[in-house]
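Technical annex B. To support the medicinal chemistry partners, we prepared a structural model of the target in complex with adenosine-5'-diphosphate, based solely on the information shown next.
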Amino acid sequence: MEANLFLKFVKVIKTEAGSLIVRHLQLVFISVTIAILIAVPSGILLTRPRFKSWSSKTMTFFNVAQGLPSLAVVAIFLPIMGIGFLPSIIALTVYALLPILRNTIAGINSINPDIIESARGMGMPSQKVLFSIEIPLALPVIIAGIQTSAVVTVGTAVIADLIGGGGLGRLIFTGISMFDPVKILAGSILAAIIAIAIDQGFDLVHKKVLTPYKGVRK
Amino acid sequence: MIKLKNITKIYPGMERPAVKNLNLHIKKGEICVFVGPSGCGKTTTLKMINRLIEPTSGELYINGKNAMEQNPDKLRQNIGYVIQQVGLFPHMTVYENIATVPRLLEWSEDKIAKRVDELLELVGLDPDENRYKYPRELSGGQKQRVGVARAMAADPPIMLMDEPFGAVDPITRTQLQNEFLKLQRKIKKTICFVTHDIDEAIKMGDRIAIMNNGQLVQYDTPSNILFAPKDKFVEDFVGSDRALKVLNLLRVNKVMRKEVPTVKLEMDSKDVIQRITDSGQKYILVLDNKERLIGYVNKNSIIESNEKTNWAKYIKEYSSTLPMDATLKDALAEMLQNDVAVIPITNDDEFVGTVTLGDIRSYVGESYKNGDESENRLVI
Ligand SMILES: Nc1ncnc2c1ncn2[C@@H]1O[C@H](COP(=O)(O)OP(=O)(O)O)[C@@H](O)[C@H]1O
Ligand SMILES: [Mg+2]
């Protein structure tokens, strides 16, 4: 019986999972990329003196938005956007924005003001301060935000199937409607593996690439 | 060089001005020290000079030009800036940190590399050892040295320093002060130096600007601040121990004995013993052939050893020496710390003389006697 289940599991993964994994990765990759393109520049903008006063309002809005269950977001989007791949991407993007936005703002605001002051005090133009001091120093925190966002989106993307986005959600929701625990399990396990792999990948980037200056070099 | 005319700063939302009607003229090549209690407006004043803070009203002239009409970034590239927390860029090496302003000025990389090495030497750091280190790998004193080197990178005529030696331990501070004074004798920059420590002000300043509540109370030479305080505030701020403060004003080279009996390494033990006997002391200072101090040697240990030639192994290292720019206060502190009565003085490693406790006492006593008490002036 157990061996039977296992064989069925392998079969599901072999025959159905391939294209669903690809679609799932597409959903995550595209929506997180769009989220980065929106959230990083807006986060930076919200730390500039001119827009600083808006940053807490924006964060409050996004915090509330993030508090909504993902199913509710999907429900809100359904009547507006209809169904399909594009609406799924848009919904996931909105969901992926917050961690990146939050970390971009936090990363830049957490830079020691003495460092910025000495840069300005030496006559560094503010654009150069941003690109060669603030962004490099905030980068580890920004990347950590992207990491969180990507991992969470892997989970949220499961629901995208409800609005026709496809992906591993297909396995899970078909499994649920057909009372097929093997399919549910296969979908969940694969999603979990993707999430863990992405998380580990980012950890590696942190250790190997970012902030070598934080440790004592040999 | 730097002229402040009726400068006032009122921070937005504040009623009381942080700096009020400040008039000040800082001469070329001088160190002007701003001193006063915390919150009196020293930092605000300093930051108005490089326009990190814009004055609410008043005029600022640098080198005869109206600084308010210049591009602030351009203005700042010609003014070195050192702050207490140093503010080195943690993601950049020592080299890149120092190269900041030269790169803004688009120097060639060759010229920058040469300049970086030259500056590291100047502030007493080995270029090969430190060039590619990150700030994290440096001690507090080393960071501060790099901060000074970075500020001097493009050889700006003016330097602004906000409590530059405030965050290091007292021994390192004394060392950095002395090195900086020596450096200043060479580079002759116009320097605005902020401190809350009156001892440091007296030691470092050609002129001292004492501030209180955003206003300039007295702008004068250190000895006038000490002996002709303008009002009760200055008097209290200087403190009642003026005799001790005077020690900050007097350099060891004024008191130093230059003709001190010494022996050279290559002398044989008989001559060494003879020299010590002639000097009437129990020990003698030992120099190498480049006049560098190696240590001292006791007469008894040579005699007891009974060896003819190899007396050098009884040389003991000297626990402390001071450079010529050190003050009598530094010397006294060294004596108390190390429990010695004689401090050797060096100039670029070369031994030039000694200062003794007795000499300090009699010199300070003399100064007081010579200075007419009614005029309260010290003859230096
Ligand atoms: N950015 C600021 N906004 C409002 N008040 C300030 C600001 N910076 C300094 N102050 C006030 O101005 C006064 C002078 O400050 P500061 O120049 O830093 O003094 P100091 O360097 O002598 O300790 C203080 O009362 C301080 O609280
Ligand atoms: Mg201050």
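Notes passed to the chemistry partners:
Residues 2-45 of chain A form the longest helix (44 residues).
The interface with chain B takes residues 112, 114-115, 117-125, 128, 133, 136-137, 211, 213-214, 216-217 of chain A (CB under 8 Å).
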